């Protein structure tokens, strides 16, 4: 299949100006509902099984919904594997899209080589090509030879919330870092070693600070977006630095509920999407944020894509 750039969810904005001279796609939740997937591409002309339709072209974007075979119209994550397949995590299973057809994977009762849970929260392609799938209960590794999954339930972790895998990323040493509802899970696939890392904060915001919404690796820093601020973690030493909203400071983090992170690969600036619908820039080494001239109404920004090929 042809390589395509895809982005999850319902609506996108693009920004091209002096602050960010490239293409930034922003997606956010609309009243807790979703309308399938939009993707930049030409329409596909191919026969489909009865009851299905080809992905339709809407304002320059292809739409992929239940009618085209998507597992659910609420997409939670997206990635492309080394073979070119597009993998889409949804609240009703995992979809593999080859540019023409969808194949869906879900939990099957009595089958330990199926997904560990029906609700899939994240999907990630590691640098070695392995596909990882985070569900509401457990992490899964896909085996392309058998088209089955190996489950990692991490029963030694403290609570069920620490097995709710919202987001996955990877450091250069091959360690996986997974954002959960109870902190950051560090997992070494080579040894099977797993650790739960709690965000150091006061007792009042402890639950919200360990409710992880976004992760981004930037050199020796692991950026952690939570429901109680943004944290810079030195992933080798596990030392944290906090960025919080300050009502009297217009250059502080615009909202403590951080839903999305991306990096401007040209300037190194961190791009932060928040619950208040705002997107802000944090320059390398800086302590102050600069708001970008776009706003997703009052909705939560849940996904950011920075495309260096545009412009």
Please characterize this protein's 3D structure.
It is a single chain. With 311 residues, the protein is mainly beta. The protein is built from one helix and 26 strands. It has one helix at residues 206-209; strands at residues 6-7, 23-28, 37-40, 56-58, 61-64, 75-80, 86-90, 93-97, 102-105, 120-125, 131-135, 139-143, 148-152, 167-170, 176-180, 183-187, 194-197, 212-218, 221-226, 229-234, 239-243, 258-263, 270-274, 278-282, 289-295, 301-307. The strands form seven sheets. The protein has a four-stranded antiparallel beta sheet, with no helix packed on it. A four-stranded antiparallel beta sheet has the order 6-7-8-9, with no helix packed on it. The longest helix is centred in the last third of the chain and has 4 residues, at 206-209. The chain is globular, with a radius of gyration of 19 Å. The two termini are 25 Å apart.
For the biggest β-sheet, the strand order reads 1-3-5-4
Q: What is the number of helices? A: 1
Low-confidence segments, ≥5 residues, pLDDT <50?
1-24, 26-34, 38-51
Strand content: 35-45%
Query: What is the averaged pLDDT score?
Result: 82
Radius of gyration over C-alpha positions, nearest whole angstrom: 19 Å
Assembly form of the protein: single chain
Given the helix and strand composition, which structural class is it? mainly beta
Query: Helix share of residues?
Result: under 10%
What letter string, H or E per element, gives the SSE order?
EEEEEEEEEEEEEEEEEHEEEEEEEEE
**Biggest sheet descriptor:** 4 strands, antiparallel
Distance between the termini: 25 Å
Using the alpha-carbon principal axes, give the shape. Answer: globular
In total, the number of strands is 26
């Amino acid at each position: 299949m042809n390589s395509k750039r895809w982005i999850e969810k319902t609506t996108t904005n693009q920004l091209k100006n002096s602050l960010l001279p490239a293409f930034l796609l922003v997606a956010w939740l609309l009243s807790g509902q979703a309308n399938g997937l939009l993707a930049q591409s030409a329409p596909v002309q191919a026969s489909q099984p009865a009851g299905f339709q080809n992905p339709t072209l809407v304002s320059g974007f292809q739409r992929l919904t239940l009618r085209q075979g998507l597992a659910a119209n609420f997409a939670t994550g997206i990635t492309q594997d080394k073979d070119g397949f597009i993998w889409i995590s949804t609240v009703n299973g995992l979809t593999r899209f080859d540019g023409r057809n969808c194949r869906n994977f879900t939990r099957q009762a009595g089958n330990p080589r199926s997904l560990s849970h029906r609700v899939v929260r994240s999907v990630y392609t590691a640098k070695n090509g392995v596909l990882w799938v985070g569900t509401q209960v457990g992490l899964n590794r896909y085996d392309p030879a058998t088209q089955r999954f190996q489950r990692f339930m991490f029963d030694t972790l403290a609570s069920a919330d620490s097995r709710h895998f919202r987001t996955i990323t990877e450091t250069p040493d091959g360690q996986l870092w997974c954002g959960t509802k109870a902190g950051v899970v560090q997992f070494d696939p080579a040894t099977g070693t797993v650790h739960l890392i709690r965000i150091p904060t006061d007792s009042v915001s402890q639950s919200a600070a360990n409710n992880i919404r976004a992760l981004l690796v930037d050199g020796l820093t692991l950026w952690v977006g939570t429901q109680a601020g943004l944290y810079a973690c030195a992933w080798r030493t596990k030392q944290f630095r906090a960025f919080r909203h300050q009502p009297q400071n217009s250059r502080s983090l615009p909202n403590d509920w951080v839903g999305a992170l991306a990096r401007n690969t040209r300037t190194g600036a961190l791009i932060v999407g928040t619950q208040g619908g705002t997107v802000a820039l944090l320059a390398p080494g800086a302590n102050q944020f600069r708001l970008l001239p776009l706003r997703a109404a009052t909705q939560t920004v849940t996904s950011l894509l920075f495309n260096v090929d545009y412009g």
